[in-house]
C-alpha cells in the first residue's frame, strides 16, 4: 500500500522499528493533535499491519493525515487496554470509536461496616468501602474469593442483621457468626485486614498458609482438596499481578525514571491523576553530568509551574532528591513528598511496578534517539581513535558459540549508522571445526565464507569488522582477508577489560568507560554474542528433542508430524483404531496394524519402567512424610554426616512423590 503523504516513509519506519512489547500508540497530525489511539499486544506487529495489504477508507484517511506515531510500552495487554481507554477519553481522537469504561471489569469490594463483608461487583459506590482491581479475569477472581472464604471465617451474607441463632456457615466452621455476637469486632476485623493486606500485595503469610494446607492434603491423598487449593494459589497469583494504569488510590503522583547511553539521557514521567495513568512525558537531554546530578537537572527543567507539581513524586535514585524538596519550597511554595522506590521493600511493590514501566519507556526513547541521529558522534570518535580511512557507517561483527566443540555456530550481525540492521544478520553452521574447540579456526572459516562470497558477487564491503575476542582472533581474520586481497579494517573487543585490539599490535587501545566509541563497539559485540548463543541453543534443542513416534515402523518425518498433530501422546495413539491410523496416514491396513502394535508395545515398556516407582512413592506417601524421615534416620543412624545426607535424600524423595501426585491429579 502506498500513500501520497510525504511523511509516509517516516511513519512506516517508525512502525518497523517499534518494540515487540505490548503498549498503546498515538497517531498525530501536522498540528500535533492526537487523531487516533490504539492498543496492541505487540506494538511492532500492530503498527506494521497498517502498511501492508489493502486497507479500508478509514485506515487510508488516518495514514494520509498523520505525520508521526508515538507509543507507550506497558507490562501487559490488559494495562494497554486501560491506558487506551484513558487516553481516548483525554484526547477524544476523531478516528476512534467510544469504548467502554474500564470499570466494567469486576472489582473486589470490602464494605465499610461494623463487621465488613467482601464480594465481587462492577459498581463503585463512594460510601467509604475499599475497592481492589479492576481484574480482567472474572473467573480467577471468583476462584480467589472462594479461596478466601475457605481460609477466613467471615460472613457470607450481603446484609448484616442481628440473629438469635447462627446460620449453616457457622456450624460447618466457615463463619464466626458475628451476627450472634460469637466474635468481637476487633478479632473479626483482623481477618478483614489480613485479606486487605493480601490484596495490596502483602499476603506472603497467606500464600504460605495455602501452600502448607495443599501439601498436607496431598500427603493425606486428599487430591480433590489439594487441587482446590492449588487452583486458589493460581488465582491468588493472578490477583497479585496488579496493574498500575488504573487503580482506586486516587492520590495524584508522578513516577520519574531515566536511562542513559553515553551523553544521551532520557527521562520518563508517568502521570497518575485521579487514580488513572493519564499520560507519559519523555524529556530528552544531552548531559555530561554525573549520575547523581541528573535528577536535579531534570526537575528544574521539567517542573515550570506550580500546577504541574503533584502531592507525591516517586523517584528511582536517592542522589539529589533531598535538595529538590528545598527547591520546590523556595520556587513554588509547595512541599511534595519525594519518595525513593526501593525494590527490596515490600511496601513499594506496586510503586516498583510503575517505576519499571517508566524505566522501560525511557530505555525505548534512548533507542529511538540513537536511531534518529544515527549515532554519528560514536562513529566519528571511532574513526579517529582507530585511524580508519572512512566513517564506519557499516560495521559487521562476528562471534562463535559452541558447547564443548559441538554445534559450532558463527554469528554475523550488521550495524548501519550505529544501529542494528537485522535484515543483514547471518549465521554459519561451521564445518571444519565441528567437534573441535578451535576459536581461531572457526573465525577463519566464518570470515572466509562471508567475504569470499562478497568479493565473488561484487557486493559492497563493510567499513569495519569487529571480532568478539582478542589479538589471536584478530590476527586469524587478518590472515584470511589478506589471502582474499581484501582491505577491511579489523578490531577485536576483549570482554575481560574491554580492550580494543588491532592486527599485529603488542598493546591494546583502552577507552574511557563513557566513550561513545566504546559504547558502540560494546553494542555490536553484545549483539553478536546474543545472536550466536541463541542459534546454538536452537540447534541443541532441536538435536535433543526426539519424538517417540519417530521410532515406530513405517513412520518418517512427515508421518511423524501427522501423528503428533492428530494424537499428541503415545497413549492416545495406542488407544486408537487401526482404521483411524490408516486413514490419517494414508497407509494400508497391514502397515497401520504394525504401527498400532508397536505403539502399544512401547506403551507397555514405559509402564513397566514407571509403575514400580509410582507404587513405591504411593506406599511411602501413604505413611506420611514422617515415614520417609524414619526410614532415612534408621538407615543412617550413627553414621555422622552420612546421616544428614540420608535425611536430605528422604526429604527430596518425599517432595518428588508429592510433586508427582499433584501433577497426576492436575491431568498434566
Give an overview of the whole structure:
By secondary structure, the protein is of the alpha+beta class. The chain has 22 helices and 18 strands. The radius of gyration is 32 Å and the shape is globular. The chain starts with 7 loop residues before the first helix and ends with a helix.
Distance between the termini: 47 Å
**What's the count of strands?**
18
Low-confidence stretches: 98-103, 624-668
What is the global morphology? globular
pLDDT averaged residue by residue: 79
Figure out the total of helices.
Answer: 22
Residue share in β-strands: 15-25%
Class by helix and strand content?
A: alpha+beta
Radius of gyration, taken over Cα atoms and rounded to an integer in Å? 32 Å
Which properties best describe this structure?
668 residues, 16% strand, alpha+beta, 18 strands, 5-stranded mixed β-sheet, 22 helices, disordered C terminus, 7-stranded mixed β-sheet, 49% helix
